[in-house]
Design brief:
Layout (H helix, E strand, L loop, with lengths): L6 H9 L3 H26 L4 H8 L3 H9 L6 H6 L14
Length: 94
Amino acid sequence: MPKTTDAIKIIHQIIADDPTIQEQIALESINAEIAQLIYDSRTKAGLTQQQLADLIHVEKSVIEDLEDADYQDNPLIMLQKIPMRNKKNPPMKT
């Protein structure tokens, strides 16, 4: 195998045959994408983390963890912890 100094190629060579590592990388990629979507949506709406947390009735730390992709659970499990609005709990007017 030819020598390379390209870090990405070196990492790919190391993990190419390890399905566990490939799965972890795929999950972290999904986590990062979800985190970015939450951040982008929140900032586009002009909300702070605290305002979003208040709006959906969660602690600010939940928003921080989601935006940092800093949690141990599957991202969908983490998102399910956010209460969904229903007829008994209509959206707040801002």
